[in-house]
Specification:
12 strands, alpha+beta, binds protoporphyrin IX containing FE, 5-stranded mixed β-sheet, Cytochrome p450
Length: 503
């Protein structure tokens, strides 16, 4: 028997013993009654029931076991929440107790989990990082002052699309790729005034590939998360791949931050950039800085990866509008009516005058939330909910995908009907628990205000200025809406179309 087989057996034995001890412990705590759920197999628990689309399989299971349900993923006790009422219990009433994070094995790469705003448990340091993220990047005054950075990136996208239109009929574009490039550059220019991706060139491949790699690895199920004892072995090699991607990403950001710091220290930096990095560096020069270079670099990494969520929303919205041409026509008419001038670049302030466009975005986020199970939360102590006990350290998944498609909440839930939001006050800012694509409570997405502006502006520009002919003569009803579960909920088939200028 070779060493690695021996280690594997040992790890399974440890996992098994931990499972047995856990169950014994549970039985002895007479008062603790877990929420109902499917009977788990020894050791593997309910892993086999989850499949490749956990949001969908968990949605099916919750129809049998209810809107608060227990499943065992290997050794990990997981509580799945599937109704707005239960989501309110978890994210509002018991917000502080449920605001911990379970950390995937691969996210321990470069000790990221020790400095990450997205994966630290609440602490003084986490609060500092969140405050920095809100005040230095995503507050409305900060967003107003970086408006021109985003407009410039939007203009770059429109110039690229115009160029494609001029080239003629064979310019098939992957809409998701075009949007991804624009969003990435938009966030990187807000952060540090640099474009990290190009539409057509290979010069920026390194960063692009690294960020894609991080997203792919973080989205794949990893057996080492279900059996922590296996983490030393990294049986799927996920951790070593992640180490490579994360190192590339972090090194590129660290070089950018270092260059700015050194330039300032050597007084070679006469320019005021007015980007976020300016204020982070200023803060680092204080006597007792609350955040150092490492914190800043990892925070920028988090913001770039999390910010790319915006891409999938725009791609899904374009897919839904292409599949439903009468809704697309309505959105175009609204834009023609309210936006003066045909070639004009929309301003973020135009969004408030576009109720149908806003309804399209809400409807897209209802049907295709980029994070269908939010980012997993963790119970920081035992909590009683509706007569059940959620044990300390349990992982909490809030299945907002299931809530978005629940016929008890929405009429014709599987249909794309933006009109349902025209007469409704429901919003996605974390108060209406039937629609929480950004989460709610203290872990709510801090990038919401930025995402709000970017999604509306880019979507409006794509439909106001261009007509899109589906590639391969595909008909609207033939568009494949199959979902792929990962770090974000992506389309299995990328949306490909040929743009032509409207005016
Ligand atoms: C349509 C776009 C977006 C959606 C739907 C979205 C959704 C989410 C969700 C569901 C969470 C987890 C909430 C929870 O744990 O309960 C989250 C967290 C987060 N998002 Fe977003 N997000 C978007 C865009 C952005 C942008 C543009 C940024 C910043 C540039 C951003 C930064 C973050 C960060 C830093 C966290 C972690 C917060 C924490 O754990 O305390 N997101 N987002």
């Amino acid at each position: 028997m070779d060493n690695s087989t021996l280690l594997l057996l040992l790890a399974f034995l440890v996992s098994y013993l931990r499972t047995v001890i856990f169950f014994r412990g549970n039985q002895s705590r007479k008062s603790s009654k877990l929420p109902p759920g499917p009977r788990p197999f020894p050791i593997i628990g309910n892993i086999l029931k989850i499949g490749k689309k956990p949001h969908q399989s968990l949605s099916e299971l919750s129809k049998t076991y209810g809107s608060i349900m227990t499943i065992k993923l290997g050794t990990i006790t997981t509580i799945v929440i599937s109704s707005p009422e239960m989501a309110k219990e978890v994210l509002h009433k018991h917000d502080s107790t449920f605001s911990g994070r379970t950390v995937l094995h691969i996210l321990q790469t470069l000790d990221h989990h020790k400095v990450s705003v997205a994966f630290l448990d609440p602490s003084v340091h986490w609060k500092t990082l969140r405050r920095a993220c809100v005040t230095k990047v995503c507050s409305s005054s900060q967003l107003d002052s970086t408006k021109n950075f985003r407009l410039k990136k939007l203009q770059d996208m429109l110039e690229y699309l115009d160029e494609c239109c001029r080239k003629g009929d064979d310019q098939v574009l992957d809409i998701g790729e075009v949007v991804f490039t624009t969003i990435l550059n938009s966030i990187s220019s807000i952060l540090f005034s640099i474009d990290l991706a190009g539409f057509a060139s290979d010069s920026t491949r390194e960063f692009r590939d690294a960020i894609r790699g991080v997203m792919e690895e973080a989205g794949k199920p990893n057996i080492a998360d279900f059996f922590p004892a296996l983490q030393v072995l990294d049986p799927q090699g996920a951790r070593s791949r992640m180490d490579v991607y994360a190192a590339k990403l972090i090194n590129i950001i660290d070089d950018i931050v270092g260059e700015r710091m050194e330039g300032r220290a050597a007084k070679m930096e006469p320019k005021v950039w007015n980007d976020a990095l300016d204020s982070f560096v200023l803060q680092m020069e204080e006597d007792k800085p609350q955040m150092g270079r490492l914190d800043t670099v990892h925070l920028f990494g988090d913001l770039l990866v999390a910010g790319v969520d915006t891409t999938s929303t725009i791609e899904w919205a374009m897919a839904e509008l292409s599949k439903n041409p009468e809704k697309l026509e309505k959105a175009k008419k609204e834009l023609q009516h309210y936006v003066i001038g045909k070639d004009i670049i929309l301003e973020e302030s135009n969004v408030s005058t576009l109720p149908f466009l806003r309804a399209v975005v809400k409807e897209t986020l209802r049907l295709h939330p980029p994070a269908p199970l939010l980012v997993p939360h963790k119970a920081l102590e035992d909590v009683k909910i509706c007569g059940f006990t959620v044990p300390k350290n349990a992982q909490i998944l809030v299945n907002i995908w299931a809530m978005g498609r629940d016929s008890a909440i929405w009429c014709n839930p599987n249909q794309f009907m933006p009109e349902r939001f025209l007469e409704s006050e429901i919003d996605f800012k974390g108060h209406d628990f039937e629609l929480i694509p950004f989460g709610a409570g203290r872990r709510i997405c801090p990038g919401l205000p930025l995402a709000f502006r970017s999604v509306h502006l880019m979507l409006a520009s794509l439909i106001h200025q261009y007509n899109w002919k589906l590639a391969d003569d595909l008909q609207p009803h033939e568009i494949d809406m199959e979902e792929k579960f990962g770090l974000t909920l992506k389309r299995v088939q990328p949306l490909k179309a040929i743009p032509s200028k409207v005016y």
